[in-house]
Amino acid sequence: MNRGRPVTLQAVAAAAGCAKSTVSMALRDDHRIPIATRQRIRAAADRLGYHPNPLLASLASRRFHVAKVLAGAPVGFITHGWPEPEKTVWVDGLKNSARTHGYDLFEYPLAELREMKNPARVLHMRGVQGLVLPAHVELEMPPDFDRSLFSVVGLGYRRGTWLKAGEADFHRVTSDHYEAVLKAWSEARHAGYRRIGFALHFHHRFPRDDVLRRTAVEFCEQTVPKRDRIPPLWTEFGVPLDLAGWLAKHRPDAVIGMHPGIYWDLLNAGWRSPRDGGFVSLDTIEGSLGKDELAITGIKETVQDECSAAMQLLDEEIRLRYRGQNPSPRTILLHGIWIPGATLPCRS
After folding, report:
1. φ and ψ of 131, to 5 deg
2. Is residue 315 part of a domain?
3. I need a surface site. Which of 71, 93, 183, 241 has the fewest CB within 10 A?
4. Among candidates 100, 208, 82, which has minimal Cα distance to 156?
């Protein structure tokens, strides 16, 4: 172990028998360097007691990355089935985040890719370095699309079948659905509500976010006496909720709904908030609801934060030359923002 002056990259290069540039790339886990060489260089660095200077590494990485290689490099965002203005919000958010990292982001509708003879090859020849794939698009991609040509980051949890044994995944960014349920429940309890019911939808393919919501609901129910527990109302997306019967039978004093549309379903069922009880949306928006000028209480998902995190991960993948699935995938969970509103007045 070195106890004197800091060990330099040049010293590690001499010990490992390779060039200084190779040492620099290997210690950044650049996949252009063979894994055996990376292991040999790391062993030499550990033996000598080498520690990188984070400030110098950051400056060097930025100079190399932005000024010379990846400035203006194209990346793609595959879109499909998103209504306006939701799609525009995501496209604009990703474009803004891409610019801060030195990239140009282009939208590629899935229908356009399906018309190409070899879409992956076409995008690769256009210089596309990486792709952002929403979870609902992953299963709809052309079956022969070669993702190993690109760095890839997913938005949301993987849909459909679970990963097979030994199969890798992508880095992912998504909202913390479990935390959202706990936050909504905690705020309602703090506001004085005791008989809180959940009116939620689930997806046909039952993805992981549905599992997390169910687990969070079960946890919340265990924190209150049995007399205050209300069976949650679960319905598949696209199937109307039987709110009238559920409300008449269980008489909740607050309802936590999947989205703001549940508020209108409650109105149609003859239930008024806040007259008949409180309402919280797990996916709300700031502002009013039509003629009632009523601001819904709930949790706002931070699209810009998700776009920023996704581009940060994609930038890392591109610089480290990861292509396709990552052997060490990470999932970044982002907490939503609590939005106070008129539908959950304090009762305590």
Report:
1. -130, 145
2. yes
3. 71
4. 208
Q: Alpha-carbon dihedral of residues 215, 216, 220, 226, nearest 10 degrees?
A: -20
Task: Report CA 265 to chain centroid distance, whole Å.
Answer: 28
**144 contact partners, CB below 8 Å, separation of at least 6:** 118, 120
Instruction: Give the CATH number of the domain where residue 214 resides.
Output: 3.40.50.2300
Structure confidence by residue, pLDDT tens digits, 66-89? 434 455 789 999 999 888 888 898
pTM for the predicted model, two decimal places: 0.76
Domain range for residue 37? Answer: 9-52
Which residue in the block uniquely carries the two structure tokens 């496209």? Answer: 91
Distances (CA, A) of 214 to 29, 160, 177, 180, 258: 39, 17, 10, 12, 12
Query: Residues with Cβ < 8 Å from 196, sequence gap 6 or more?
Result: 185, 188, 189, 220, 228, 230, 252, 253, 254, 255, 256
23-37, 74-88, 178-192, 313-327, range with the lowest pLDDT = 23-37
Q: Which helix (H) or strand (E) holds 120?
A: helix 119-125
Show the tokens assigned to 113: 């890719």
Fill in the amino acid letter for 89.
Answer: V
3-state helix, strand and coil shares in percent for the chain, rounded to the nearest 5: 40, 20, 40
57 belongs to a structural domain? no
